Amino acid sequence: MKAPSKNQEIEARVFKNILALKTPEQKIIGFHASNLELAELDEETWQTFNKAPNALIPGPFTFPTLPETSAKKEIEQWNQENFSEVHDFIPSSIRSISINVSQVCNLKC
Q1: Across the beta sheet with 50-51, what order do the strands follow?
Q2: What's the whole-model pTM score?
Q3: What does the pLDDT look like over 41-95, one tens digit per residue?
Q4: Which burial class, exposed, middle or buried, applies to 37 when counting CB atoms under 10 A from its CB (0-12, 13-18, 19+)?
Q5: Contacts of 46 (CB under 8 A, 6+ apart)
Q6: Among 1, 14, 56, 60, which residue's CB has the most CB atoms within a 10 Å radius?
Q7: pLDDT tens per residue, range 85-106
Q8: Residue ranges of the alpha helices (H) in 1-109?
Q9: Gap between the Cα atoms of 85 and 1, Å rounded
């Protein structure tokens, strides 16, 4: 797989526990960090997320008040989901996560 050119960069946005990636082909993928879930998102939902500068996800973010839309309600609901099958076995000393964007973008949702 070829690396994206300068005009074909992958955009990243974040909303609390959810990372959204937009591919050069305009496909939008959401990743729930706590539940390790992937979902294909639409453009309206993409607009709900905060822009992450230079595709890096620094924290902490402040979340501006956004207009109440169905997309915002759905993304907030997904953010609050916690599956009982997911257990936190990782020591709290870990401060970062690496995501292979190429592999995430190649997944079929």
Answers
A1: 37-41, 28-32, 18-22, 11-15, 50-51
A2: 0.60
A3: 999 889 888 765 444 455 555 555 566 788 888 888 998 888 766 555 555 666 7
A4: middle
A5: 13, 20, 22, 28
A6: 14
A7: 655 555 566 677 777 777 777 7
A8: 43-46, 70-80, 101-106
A9: 34
